[in-house]
Amino acid sequence: MINEIEAFCQAHGFLYHEHGSGTWGADRYWTLYKVEDNDRTVFSIEYFPVRGTVKIGKGGSRYQGMVESTAHLKELLAAMRIDELN
Predict the structure, then answer these.
(1) DSSP states of 69-83 as a string?
(2) What's this model's pTM, rounded to 2 decimal places?
(3) Residue 51 forms beta bridges with which residues?
(4) What is the pLDDT of residue 85?
(5) Of all residues in the chain, what percent are helix, strand and coil, respectively (each to 5)?
(6) How many CA within 13 A on the CB side of residue 31?
């Protein structure tokens, strides 16, 4: 069953990794990367629904931790100045 954050990821073009990370690839996850000039990552977002965690990186700033809801995720993205998804 897809949760509200996964629905957000799906609606915003995140790539779904059904057989992803963790032991034997059991932890599915979602990723979105914005790359410019084929070599510079502007931002990266990885959401792990099994663990309820997110990794967000932009420039030299990083956040890694729990995310409670879509509203919380949007607040984190705003704090990281990732405006494309709000």
Answers:
(1) SHHHHHHHHHHTT--
(2) 0.87
(3) none
(4) 77
(5) 25, 45, 30
(6) 12
